Amino acid sequence: MPPKLSFREKTELYCHEMKVLAMLILGSLARALKVDAVMMWEMFEDGVPSIRMNYYLPCPEPSKAIGFSPHSDADALTILYQFNYTDGLQIRKDGIWMPIRPIPNALIVNKGDIMEIFNNGIYRNIEHRATVNSTKERLSVATFYSCRLDTDLGPAPNLVGLPFFRLFQSSSTSRTSSLRG
Ligand SMILES: O=C(O)CCC(=O)C(=O)O
Ligand SMILES: [Fe+2]
Protein backbone atom coordinates (compact mmCIF):
# COMPACT_ATOMS: atom_id res chain seq x y z
CA MET A 1 0.00 0.00 0.00
CA PRO A 2 1.41 3.46 -0.86
CA PRO A 3 1.87 5.67 2.23
CA LYS A 4 -1.09 7.90 3.06
CA LEU A 5 -0.02 11.46 2.41
CA SER A 6 -1.29 14.55 4.20
CA PHE A 7 -2.83 17.39 2.18
CA ARG A 8 0.40 19.36 2.62
CA GLU A 9 2.55 16.46 1.39
CA LYS A 10 0.27 15.88 -1.63
CA THR A 11 0.38 19.58 -2.49
CA GLU A 12 4.18 19.65 -2.20
CA LEU A 13 4.45 16.55 -4.39
CA TYR A 14 2.08 18.03 -6.97
CA CYS A 15 4.07 21.28 -6.96
CA HIS A 16 7.31 19.33 -7.45
CA GLU A 17 5.88 17.36 -10.41
CA MET A 18 4.59 20.59 -11.97
CA LYS A 19 8.09 22.07 -11.68
CA VAL A 20 9.55 19.04 -13.52
CA LEU A 21 6.91 19.51 -16.24
CA ALA A 22 7.48 23.29 -16.40
CA MET A 23 11.24 22.74 -16.88
CA LEU A 24 10.56 20.26 -19.71
CA ILE A 25 8.26 22.73 -21.43
CA LEU A 26 10.76 25.57 -20.93
CA GLY A 27 13.47 23.35 -22.46
CA SER A 28 11.28 22.78 -25.54
CA LEU A 29 10.58 26.50 -25.79
CA ALA A 30 14.32 27.25 -25.57
CA ARG A 31 14.94 24.87 -28.49
CA ALA A 32 12.08 26.35 -30.52
CA LEU A 33 13.35 29.91 -29.92
CA LYS A 34 17.01 28.92 -30.33
CA VAL A 35 17.68 30.49 -26.93
CA ASP A 36 20.78 29.44 -24.99
CA ALA A 37 19.46 26.46 -23.00
CA VAL A 38 21.96 27.00 -20.14
CA MET A 39 20.88 30.63 -19.71
CA MET A 40 17.23 29.55 -19.71
CA TRP A 41 17.99 26.79 -17.22
CA GLU A 42 19.85 29.14 -14.85
CA MET A 43 17.05 31.67 -15.01
CA PHE A 44 14.24 29.22 -14.31
CA GLU A 45 15.75 26.28 -12.40
CA ASP A 46 15.37 27.97 -9.02
CA GLY A 47 12.17 29.70 -10.12
CA VAL A 48 9.35 30.35 -7.71
CA PRO A 49 6.38 27.98 -7.90
CA SER A 50 3.06 28.79 -6.27
CA ILE A 51 -0.39 27.25 -6.36
CA ARG A 52 -3.86 28.79 -6.37
CA MET A 53 -6.95 26.70 -5.89
CA ASN A 54 -10.03 28.38 -7.35
CA TYR A 55 -13.52 27.40 -6.25
CA TYR A 56 -16.50 28.84 -8.15
CA LEU A 57 -19.94 28.44 -6.64
CA PRO A 58 -22.92 27.94 -8.97
CA CYS A 59 -24.63 31.25 -9.69
CA PRO A 60 -28.34 31.50 -10.59
CA GLU A 61 -27.62 34.40 -12.98
CA PRO A 62 -24.24 33.57 -14.57
CA SER A 63 -24.53 36.27 -17.23
CA LYS A 64 -24.51 38.89 -14.46
CA ALA A 65 -21.45 37.50 -12.69
CA ILE A 66 -17.84 36.63 -13.41
CA GLY A 67 -15.77 33.97 -11.64
CA PHE A 68 -12.35 35.42 -12.39
CA SER A 69 -12.08 38.72 -14.22
CA PRO A 70 -9.94 39.03 -17.40
CA HIS A 71 -6.20 38.97 -16.75
CA SER A 72 -2.90 37.52 -17.89
CA ASP A 73 -0.79 35.65 -15.37
CA ALA A 74 2.33 37.47 -14.15
CA ASP A 75 4.48 34.32 -14.17
CA ALA A 76 6.35 32.50 -16.96
CA LEU A 77 4.17 29.41 -17.30
CA THR A 78 0.89 28.46 -15.67
CA ILE A 79 -0.18 24.82 -15.57
CA LEU A 80 -3.89 24.55 -14.91
CA TYR A 81 -5.91 21.52 -13.96
CA GLN A 82 -9.69 21.81 -14.34
CA PHE A 83 -10.80 19.53 -11.56
CA ASN A 84 -14.40 18.56 -12.08
CA TYR A 85 -14.70 19.08 -15.84
CA THR A 86 -17.09 22.01 -15.63
CA ASP A 87 -16.85 24.65 -18.38
CA GLY A 88 -15.70 28.10 -17.30
CA LEU A 89 -12.23 28.94 -18.57
CA GLN A 90 -12.13 31.23 -21.60
CA ILE A 91 -9.26 32.85 -23.51
CA ARG A 92 -9.49 36.00 -25.61
CA LYS A 93 -8.46 35.25 -29.20
CA ASP A 94 -8.72 37.99 -31.84
CA GLY A 95 -11.01 39.91 -29.49
CA ILE A 96 -13.43 37.00 -28.98
CA TRP A 97 -13.82 34.96 -25.79
CA MET A 98 -13.30 31.28 -26.63
CA PRO A 99 -14.19 28.47 -24.19
CA ILE A 100 -11.44 26.05 -23.24
CA ARG A 101 -13.44 22.89 -22.64
CA PRO A 102 -12.00 20.62 -19.94
CA ILE A 103 -10.57 17.33 -21.28
CA PRO A 104 -10.30 14.50 -18.71
CA ASN A 105 -6.80 14.29 -17.23
CA ALA A 106 -5.48 17.07 -19.47
CA LEU A 107 -3.48 20.02 -18.19
CA ILE A 108 -3.67 23.48 -19.73
CA VAL A 109 -0.43 25.41 -20.17
CA ASN A 110 -0.64 29.18 -20.34
CA LYS A 111 2.17 31.57 -21.08
CA GLY A 112 2.41 34.49 -18.68
CA ASP A 113 3.95 37.98 -18.68
CA ILE A 114 7.49 36.82 -17.78
CA MET A 115 7.50 34.46 -20.77
CA GLU A 116 6.26 37.21 -23.08
CA ILE A 117 9.07 39.54 -21.92
CA PHE A 118 11.71 36.79 -22.10
CA ASN A 119 10.87 35.86 -25.68
CA ASN A 120 10.43 39.51 -26.72
CA GLY A 121 6.73 39.09 -27.53
CA ILE A 122 7.16 36.16 -29.96
CA TYR A 123 4.83 34.09 -27.81
CA ARG A 124 2.26 36.44 -26.30
CA ASN A 125 0.80 36.06 -22.83
CA ILE A 126 -2.76 34.77 -22.83
CA GLU A 127 -5.62 36.92 -21.61
CA HIS A 128 -8.14 34.68 -19.91
CA ARG A 129 -11.07 34.70 -17.51
CA ALA A 130 -13.39 32.24 -15.77
CA THR A 131 -17.16 32.36 -16.02
CA VAL A 132 -19.57 30.75 -13.57
CA ASN A 133 -22.16 28.08 -14.15
CA SER A 134 -25.85 28.22 -13.21
CA THR A 135 -26.05 24.74 -11.67
CA LYS A 136 -22.58 23.31 -11.24
CA GLU A 137 -19.69 24.28 -9.00
CA ARG A 138 -16.25 24.45 -10.54
CA LEU A 139 -12.79 23.82 -9.15
CA SER A 140 -9.46 24.58 -10.80
CA VAL A 141 -5.88 24.34 -9.58
CA ALA A 142 -3.36 26.71 -11.13
CA THR A 143 0.38 26.22 -10.61
CA PHE A 144 2.37 29.34 -11.43
CA TYR A 145 6.00 29.08 -12.38
CA SER A 146 8.22 32.17 -12.39
CA CYS A 147 11.90 32.82 -12.90
CA ARG A 148 14.37 33.46 -10.06
CA LEU A 149 13.59 36.64 -8.18
CA ASP A 150 17.20 37.84 -8.10
CA THR A 151 17.56 37.90 -11.87
CA ASP A 152 17.34 40.70 -14.42
CA LEU A 153 14.32 40.05 -16.58
CA GLY A 154 14.43 41.08 -20.22
CA PRO A 155 14.35 39.59 -23.70
CA ALA A 156 16.85 36.80 -24.42
CA PRO A 157 19.87 38.34 -26.24
CA ASN A 158 19.31 36.39 -29.49
CA LEU A 159 15.72 37.66 -29.72
CA VAL A 160 16.58 41.36 -29.90
CA GLY A 161 18.18 42.99 -32.89
CA LEU A 162 17.31 42.36 -36.53
CA PRO A 163 14.94 40.90 -37.58
CA PHE A 164 13.41 41.42 -34.12
CA PHE A 165 12.38 44.76 -32.70
CA ARG A 166 13.07 45.12 -28.94
CA LEU A 167 9.65 45.28 -27.25
CA PHE A 168 10.79 45.25 -23.61
CA GLN A 169 13.64 46.74 -21.58
CA SER A 170 15.49 44.64 -19.01
CA SER A 171 14.63 45.30 -15.42
CA SER A 172 15.10 43.55 -12.09
CA THR A 173 12.30 41.07 -11.44
CA SER A 174 11.46 42.68 -8.10
CA ARG A 175 10.88 45.98 -9.93
CA THR A 176 8.78 44.26 -12.61
CA SER A 177 6.57 42.63 -9.98
CA SER A 178 6.17 45.86 -8.03
CA LEU A 179 5.14 47.71 -11.20
CA ARG A 180 2.27 45.26 -11.64
CA GLY A 181 0.98 46.14 -8.17
O1 LIG B 1 -10.25 28.86 -12.97
C1 LIG B 1 -9.70 29.00 -14.07
O2 LIG B 1 -9.91 28.26 -15.03
C2 LIG B 1 -8.72 30.14 -14.27
C3 LIG B 1 -7.97 30.51 -13.03
C4 LIG B 1 -6.94 31.55 -13.28
O3 LIG B 1 -6.90 32.16 -14.32
C5 LIG B 1 -5.93 31.87 -12.26
O4 LIG B 1 -5.97 31.28 -11.16
O5 LIG B 1 -5.05 32.71 -12.54
FE1 LIG C 1 -5.02 33.18 -14.57
From TrEMBL:
GO MF term (any one): metal ion binding
Keywords of the record: Iron, Metal-binding
InterPro entries (UniProt xref): IPNS-like_FE2OG_OXY (IPR044861), IPNS-like_sf (IPR027443), Oxoglu/Fe-dep_dioxygenase_dom (IPR005123), Plant_2OG-oxidoreductases (IPR050295)
Domain of life: Eukaryota
Domain annotation Fe2OG dioxygenase: ranges: 47-147
UniProt-listed Gene3D superfamilies: B-lactam Antibiotic, Isopenicillin N Synthase, Chain
Protein name in the entry: Fe2OG dioxygenase domain-containing protein
